[in-house]
Design goal:
Elements lengths: L2 E5 L9 H14 L3 E4 L19 H9 L6 E4 L2 E2 L5 H14 L4 E6 L4 H7 L6 H17 L17 E4 L3 H10 L2 E5 L3 H18 L4 H5 L15 E7 L6 H12 L4 E5 L3 H17 L1
Parallel strand pairs: 1-2, 1-9, 2-3, 3-5, 4-5, 5-6, 6-7, 7-8, 8-9
Helix pairs in contact: 1-10, 2-3, 3-5, 6-7, 7-9
């Protein structure tokens, strides 16, 4: 069964935090399975008009989780190479425990060179550093030794979602991900990406020359029997919902197991969230 998800509006500094709570509670009551929050430390444009986010997502998720009971919360996506993987792992494991195991850690490599320069992070090697950080986080979550004691230990799986449609993102999802979220794809492109992801998953589960060079010890072990849950992210910020609903149907026919929708600004999100679910489930 397809899980409907919502991308919460977090790009207006004038919006009261309580409004985010109201929308998260409404999403839970409507049956949305996951609510996502964006992430940028210093996004381009005033208050991140391009995929920004006013409030830091992990802190905000803690606030929202305390006011809900069932809905999962995730980052779509946390720009990992701007952060310490040890701090992210600690934050995520803590939040997962405190929320009743309702966190999805969505990860991306980032895309804005200006933002990287502003925070003192190198842009050119962000892909490599993202992979290295994911290997560390995977090891900590699995209880593997990284030179110290990691707590809180996971009592239930904490899914890692990899966002992005590049070849590097698909390789990353195959190796480190429990979930993958595409963006801006039609049904044909989505199906092609999923096929590629499955192939890469099988390849990642096969011992490699790197594995042998490490003496049989790899930092991130891939379980080929565990499939990557695949999903997509859409935008309906106004106008006729028909084409967006139709695209959602086409994407689910192409294999999407989750459909996350951004509904625009805070003033229209509740109405659109309600209408979209009604139209999608009616079909």
């Amino acid at each position: 069964m397809v899980e409907l998800q919502v991308v919460l509006p977090d790009e207006s500094a004038a919006m009261a935090p309580e409004r985010l709570v109201e929308l998260a509670v409404a999403a839970e009551e409507l049956g949305y399975g996951t609510a996502w929050l964006p992430d940028h430390l210093l996004p381009p444009g005033e208050f991140g008009s391009t995929y920004g986010g006013v409030y830091e997502p992990l802190v905000t998720i803690g606030y929202l989780a305390a006011r809900t009971t069932r809905i999962r919360f995730g980052t779509s996506v946390l720009v990992l190479p701007m952060r310490s993987p040890y701090v992210v792992a600690k934050q995520a494991a803590t939040l997962h425990r405190l929320s009743g195991e309702r966190l999805v850690l969505g990860i991306g490599a980032g895309w804005d060179a200006t933002e990287f320069a502003s925070v003192g992070a190198t842009f050119e090697d962000r892909g490599r550093r993202t992979d290295e950080s994911l290997a560390i986080i995977r090891d900590l979550f699995a209880g593997r030794d990284r030179g110290g004691v990691f707590e809180p230990k996971l009592r239930a799986s904490l899914p890692i979602m990899i966002g992005g449609t590049t070849k590097a993102a698909l390789r990353r999802a195959a190796r480190y991900g429990d979930e993958w979220q595409g963006l801006g794809l039609d049904a044909t492109a989505f199906a092609t990406a999923v096929t590629r992801l499955r192939v890469l998953r099988e390849e990642s589960a096969t011992p490699s020359e790197e594995f042998a060079a490490r003496g049989g010890v790899e930092p991130a072990r891939v379980d080929a029997a565990r499939p990557v849950r695949v999903g997509t992210r859409l935008d309906w910020s106004g106008g006729d919902p028909g084409p967006v609903v139709e695209l959602a149907y086409e994407l689910t026919d192409a294999g999407a197991e989750t459909v996350a929708v951004s509904f625009g600004d805070e003033h229209d999100t509740l109405d659109r969230m309600t209408r979209f679910r009604s139209l999608f489930t009616a079909g």
